[in-house]
Recover the amino acids of this structure.
């Protein structure tokens, strides 16, 4: 039995010509990270819009800023993570002053 170059390349790659129905793990992680980032930024904007209604929305805004900072660091955009951490501290101070 003689193997063609294409068949040998498929055999060598371990794919054997089968098409995987699942994306690679790196694509799944990237998609999950993108979904997390979009969700946390949406939550952050919602809390910011409702901030005048209650100090608890300010605290929620601070928490979502912290979550957004985590997204920034996980995505490899550390300047975004640093800025969001600072916004978290500013919001925590604003919440603390509003409770007095």
């Amino acid at each position: 039995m003689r193997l063609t170059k294409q068949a040998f390349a498929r055999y060598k790659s371990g794919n054997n010509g089968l098409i995987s129905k699942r994306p690679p793990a790196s694509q799944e992680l990237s998609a999950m990270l993108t979904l997390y980032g979009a969700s946390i930024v949406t939550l952050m904007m919602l809390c910011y819009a409702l901030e005048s209604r209650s100090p608890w929305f300010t605290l929620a805004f601070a928490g979502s800023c912290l979550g957004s900072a985590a997204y920034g660091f996980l995505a490899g955009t550390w300047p975004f993570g640093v800025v969001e951490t600072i916004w978290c501290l500013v919001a925590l101070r604003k919440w603390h002053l509003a409770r007095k």
Notes: The mean pLDDT is 87. The longest helix spans residues 25-49.
